[in-house]
Amino acid sequence: MKKLGIIAGAGALPHCLIEACERMHRDFYVLGLKGQANPKEYDKALPMSWIRLGAVGKAFRIFKKNKVQEVVFIGGVKRPSLVGLWPDFKAFRLISQVGLKALGDDGLLKVIVKAVESNGMKVVGIDEILPHLLSKKGVYTRRVPTPQDSVDIKRGTEVARLLGKADVGQSVIVQQGLVLALEGIEGTDALIRRSSDLKRKGGGGVLVKMCKPQQDRRMDLPTIGPKTVQAVKNAGFAGIAVQSGAVLISQAEQTIKLANQLGLFIIGVDVK
């Protein structure tokens, strides 16, 4: 197995990957993103360095020094402003290729993939290494969607596809056929919190999460986990629908157990 470079953002997924590499006896090197990943969650004995988000040139030098052959991007990353990014020369050249309007969006991600591979490394998707994290078709929980939930899910997938095509977000919340909110730059958890103030009387409400139609699946696959489930419960909604084969379920056992405890449903749906 080729040596893996792990570019780690926030959340549990980077740790899942590190543990999997250790089980497989696969060599790896971690680059933790400052301001995204939490240094307190990482063992100081790990083969690891910390870089700021805009230090692209430094990242390439570290990976080359450590003979990394494949690279995976994993974990949550808050989209930065240009000032927050503080790009080095290499990053500035990447940004100039796509224009500032694409900062943090699919255009820039595709350029980053191209840049990594032009430096002799291959970008791989987390689903290639840990395919069991991908969502599957069917109901995961004891609770199943009601007929109204199913209508909301269908409506949500239609809207989420349009949202994704516009390269805006990956999630929507629908209740009683009404689109309560669309995901923007704030991320899914903030979307759910914002939607709680818009909830209608009568119950129901579904978070629908999908992959963008044009998305490079090696980068920024949508993810749900225990925090998502808790946020949906706190907002008073009924459940979560994810696109089967295109959404990562972090800490799946814990996520499903929590959904059952809270009386929510989780379902994987095919999207044509």
Q: Would you give an account of this structure?
A:
By secondary structure, this protein is of the alpha/beta class. Helix content is 38%, strand content 19%. The chain has ten helices and 13 strands. The strands form three sheets. The protein has a six-stranded mixed sheet, with helices on both faces. A five-stranded parallel sheet has the order 3-2-1-4-5, sandwiched between helices. Strands 10-12 form a two-stranded parallel sheet. Helix 4 packs across helix 5, helix 8 packs parallel to helix 9 (226-235) and helix 9 (226-235) runs parallel beside helix 10 (252-262). The longest helix has 19 residues, at 147-165. It is globular and about 60 Å long. The model has no long low-confidence stretch (mean pLDDT 88).
List keywords for this structure.
single chain, 272 residues, alpha/beta, Rossmann fold, Cytidine Deaminase, domain 2, 2 domains, six-stranded mixed beta sheet, five-stranded parallel beta sheet, 10 helices, 38% helix, globular
Topology:
Blueprint: E1 4-8, H1 13-24, E2 28-33, E3 48-51, H2 56-65, E4 70-74, H3 82-85, H4 89-98, H5 106-118, E5 122-123, H6 126-129, E6 138-139, H7 147-165, E7 171-175, E8 178-182, H8 188-196, E9 206-209, E10 223-224, H9 226-235, E11 239-243, E12 248-249, H10 252-262, E13 265-269
Parallel strand pairs: 1-2, 1-4, 2-3, 4-5, 9-11, 10-12, 11-13
Antiparallel strand pairs: 6-13, 7-8, 7-9
